Amino acid sequence: MSRLTTMLCVALLTPRPARKERGDVPGWVLITVMTAGLVVAIWQLAGDQLAKMLQNALDSVTNK
């Protein structure tokens, strides 16, 4: 085996300590809340138009 291969095998097979990483939980919560807020805002502003668009799309599919 070459030295590089040996070093790579050792690096890959050596157990690593587990990280106690929580991730970016506050960031994901903020993204979720902001997305929900945008959905509510768009629904309030354009709910009737969106309902009409959906109904027209469904009618065009079912009424061929």
Number of helices: 2
Q: Please, what is the average pLDDT?
A: 84
Oligomer: single chain
Helix percentage range: over 70%
Distance between the termini: 69 Å
Question: What Rg, in angstroms, do the CA atoms define?
Answer: 27 Å
| pLDDT < 50 stretches | none
Instruction: Tell the overall outline.
Output: elongated
Would you report the number of β strands? 0
Based on secondary structure, the structural category is mainly alpha
| Main sheet: strands, sense, barrel | none
**Residues in β-strands, percent:** under 5%
Order of helices and strands: HH
Question: How are the SSEs ordered, and which strands pair?
Answer:
Layout: H1 3-13, H2 25-62
Name the features.
64 residues; mainly alpha
Outline the structure in words:
This protein is mainly α and 64 residues long. The chain has a domain at 26-64. The protein has helices at residues 3-13, 25-62. The termini are far apart. The mean pLDDT is 84.
Short overview:
It contains two helices and no strands. With 64 residues, it is mainly alpha-helical.
